[in-house]
Design brief:
The structure holds two protein chains of two kinds.
Chain A lengths: L2 E3 L4 E5 L4 E3 L2 E3 L5 E8 L6 E7 L7 E2 L2 E6 L4 E6 L8 E9 L7 E3 L3 E6 L1
Parallel strand pairs in A: 2-12
Antiparallel strand pairs in A: 1-4, 3-9, 5-6, 5-10, 7-8, 8-9, 10-11, 10-12
Chain B lengths: L4 E3 L2 E4 L5 E6 L6 E7 L5 E8 L2 E5 L7 E4 L6 E5 L8 E8 L8 E2 L3 E5 L1
Parallel strand pairs in B: 2-11
Antiparallel strand pairs in B: 1-3, 3-8, 4-5, 4-9, 5-6, 7-8, 9-10, 9-11
The chains are: A mainly beta, B mainly beta.
Chain lengths: 116, 114
Amino acid sequence: AQTVTQSQPEMSVQEAETVTLSCTYDTSESNYYLFWYKQPPSRQMILVIRQEAYKQQNATENRFSVNFQKAAKSFSLKISDSQLGDTAMYFCAFMNIGGSQGNLIFGKGTKLSVKP
Amino acid sequence: EPEVTQTPSHQVTQMGQEVILRCVPISNHLYFYWYRQILGQKVEFLVSFYNNEISEKSEIFDDQFSVERPDGSNFTLKIRSTKLEDSAMYFCASIPPGLAGEQFFGPGTRLTVL
């Protein structure tokens, strides 16, 4: 069974600075996707970034980028130029696309606070 | 931009009652999911649905739960005889054809069991 571990329950960062959220996962599968979802106080789940395991190049979306280390099964999220609106829970998630029907397995989340 | 919708946004019920949570996935999507998030905890997979039948379900999804796609648009989660521990946010999600990766989440229904 796959597991996703986020070892940082809470983090804080000053506005305009950079922060990195950690995520590790465990799987024997070779064909999968990894995601970071943001959950603001409204509790809506918002996709931040996606990484396909077969791609060596790290995904980037504006101020958000990942460091995907497949051999180490590590998938960290870097947020540059942090903004107050980035304050939220961040969930790392794994999806096996090899055989199952694509259900997501989530980590426990990291609560990020951006301070002015 | 099309989006997944869920109703109601908040449901309060008495323990032992039945509730039906409703979702309208994005129209051309084929795979549908329900997830649960107990307050302060991680999001947990409940069930996936494809081609009018359950594809996969977690150990949480026991006989108390059922899902249905009664027409071409709605996707429902029924919880029979609710328990206090069923209080949670329930999220519906869908994926376009081909399992392209991104799951589109609805805004969630907050279920409170008293």
